[in-house]
Design brief:
Helix content: under 10%
Strand content: 35-45%
Shape: globular
Number of strands: 15
Order of helices and strands: EEEEEEEEHEEEEEEE
Structural class: mainly beta
């Protein structure tokens, strides 16, 4: 993939393939109805460069990583570039999609969830509160083109290469910016 991240204890590996195209999403009946899996070998969609991530988990019995999920964004679109960057902790995955919404960009946040029977652990699909969107974003900002985070993902730093310093500047200069966020226990706050 274009991007790869490993959880601090080595349990999870997440790889992003932002140029993956023609992926069809299907609901897995064994998971929450909102959980969307991408099936690469399914009939083609018309979404070029929508992107996917692949989540693999360490099998402690044989010491090998086994694929758990292949995911697309909740509402995949062409040129979204979902998976351009990925961050993973033991409890959270953050995925960038710098091409989303006319290249304004956004981040998706997945939290690890235990099933009601306590037997399995899954990654919860984002809802409106689990997406991070740059305030006052404009087309071409490409929020999420690059990312870094603390090992527990309390802090994340997001690259915005197309951001201008002010509305008066020529929009072709692309002077760029970074945004720093901190987890407050419920959501990420822009610092």
């Amino acid at each position: 993939g274009t991007s790869v991240a490993v959880s601090s204890d080595g349990t999870f590996i997440v790889g992003g393939a932002p140029n993956a195209s023609y992926v069809k999403e299907t609901n897995n009946p064994e998971k929450d109805a909102r959980f969307i899996e991408a099936k690469i070998d399914s009939p083609a969609s018309n979404r070029l460069n929508q992107g996917i991530i692949k989540i693999s988990k360490l099998n402690t019995t044989n010491g090998e990583y086994e694929p758990e999920y292949v995911l697309t964004s909740q509402v995949p679109t062409a040129n979204e570039l979902f998976g351009q960057q990925v961050l993973v902790s033991n409890e959270r995955i953050i995925v960038s999609a710098p091409g989303a919404d006319s290249k304004k960009g956004k981040l998706y946040v997945y939290d690890r969830q235990v099933q009601s029977d306590g037997s399995t652990v899954d990654w919860d699909i984002p809802n409106d509160q689990k997406e991070i969107i740059l305030p006052n974003a404009v087309a071409g900002d490409q929020f999420g083109q690059s990312m870094a985070g603390s090992k527990d993902l309390e802090y994340i730093v997001v690259g915005i290469p197309g951001r201008e310093e002010s509305a008066d500047l020529d929009s072709t200069l692309n002077s760029g910016a970074v945004a720093i966020y901190r987890w407050n226990g419920q959501q990420y706050e822009l610092l």
